[in-house]
Amino acid sequence: xxxxxxxxxxxxxxxxxxxxxxxxxxxxxxxxxxxxxxxxxxxxxxxxxxxxxxxxxxxxxxxxxxxxxxxxxxxxxxxxxxxxxxxxxxxxxxxxxxxxxxxxxxxxxxxxxxxxxxxxxxxxxxxxxxxxxxxxxxxxxxxxxxxxxxxxxxxxxxxxxxxxxxxxxxxxxxxxxxxxxxxxxxxxxxxxxxxxxxxxxxxxxxxxxxxxxxxxxxxxxxxxxxxxxxxxxxxxxxxxxxxxxxxxxxxxxxxxxxxxxxxxxxxxxxxxxxxxxxxxxxxxxxxxxxxxxxxxxxxxxxxxxxxxxxxxxxxxxxxxxxxxxxxxxxxxxxx
Length: 335
Known about the structure:
By secondary structure, the chain is an alpha+beta fold. The protein has two domains: 14-234, C8orf32 fold (Roll); 247-334, Sandwich (Immunoglobulin-like), CATH 2.60.40.10. 34% of the residues lie in helices and 32% in strands. Strands 10, 12, 14, 15, 18 and 19 form a six-stranded mixed sheet that branches. Strands 8-5-4-3-9 form a five-stranded antiparallel sheet. A hairpin with a 4-residue loop joins β6 (182-185) and β7 (190-193).
């Protein structure tokens, strides 16, 4: 009964959340405070949180300062991520050993977060929630499936990612401090801080393209939440898409099967005006890759890219903006 009541209240609160607009808020002060404050560890989280929010007036500015501080100070612990993945796979048929490892892992996770300022998605989401709680902002940890170019859903047996819901002015919003922080190169053993603005208070329709919550009401989508299988079949979007797009309109699936010589149109709603010359459509098959010249129509930040697929075969199709990859699709062209 309590869970049912919570869900009902939750839905009342999210009804208009996706329409909220913070364009009137200048985050430069919050960003400046967050970027300039340093701490060797997180042993005094109350003090850190107080110092980076005390001079800010609104809750959204306080949230912004907390978010930016996390993204500029907490490194991705890909070593711990790899170890956890390896252990879970090893013990997947041994429930007792898996339970023991999960307990050990939680201790290790928080120890490394507090003392080394390194963590994985669970730690990022936990830290944002705790710091928000300190300043009176309600936040939740959302567990689910994160979709990237390296995730193999055929072997995935449990949720692989965590992110946050935050409540501002009685409305719920989505953010992902993990993916906003930077880029990991596990094969090189390196992590680079590189803040991605797009994962902060992201539009639910776009956020869902890469984030499938276990509890579907946490998607914040107004319409029916797609199934996990529908989610897996969606186009593959990359980090730059979150800076570039307001939402991805068409196609709704990553894989397309069309006839030879058919004109196919990709559709997007952009966040801001762009130069058409900065766009590039690349088609690859095996080791062969070529940039093609599609018809591009841009009006009122709605982008339509039309291309005629003349050659039969199986192709990967990539959209780039300013040399940064936005999305990937696959096409099977038949006679």
